[in-house]
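thought: fold this chain, then report.
action: predict
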Amino acid sequence: MDQQPTKDSLNSGHRERLRERFLKGGPDGLHDYEVLELLLFRAIPRRDVKPIAKKLLQRFGSFAEVIAAAPARLKEVEYVGDAVVTELKIVEAAALLLAKQSMRRRLELGSFAQVLDYCRGAMAFRETEEFRVLFLDKKNGLVADEVQGRGTVDHTPVYPREVIRRALELNASALILVHNHPSGDPTPSTADVTMTETIASLAKPLGVKLHDHLIIGRNGHCSMRAMKLI
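observation:
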């Protein structure tokens, strides 16, 4: 009598085929849910993870938003526990590290496309506001990238004198301010403009230049310099 394939063997065969497709064609040949499946294989070794991957995408909207989602929200999806969250957060950390190191190499050449790519990856899908400062040297090389504050869905406390104090500690010659709007709309608020003017006025007498203040949203970004607000 022929032996019928078991559920485990069918699942194992699917995993191997998906891995082979990835190795041959890379991620461009896969759907977003299939890339998520590859990440879930290690965390959930036996269960069919395709439904879980699809539920994650349905809940959060895109691959990037799944990776950036808060652990507590990820765990609201059935079968998503610490092991899954760890795998997803490793990918997020690796992506940000790659973007950050690429930005560190290229900033001196004056290319700010990498800055935007990095900031979008780090902040666009955050559910609360985050304010960070990129500290630059005289050649616009990246000295430090530091988160100065985290807040609520629509506010982050920012202390301009602390920003300037830190710039002096790092011997930075210039700054790029960056924060996100979880609402998705990157339009600067009156408070954003006032805070930017305060930092610029404190920095200028000390020989520290404010290059820009970027506001990052799901739907794009705003540059205060491009808007002639600096």
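thought: worth noting. The radius of gyration is 22 Å.
final: tokens above.
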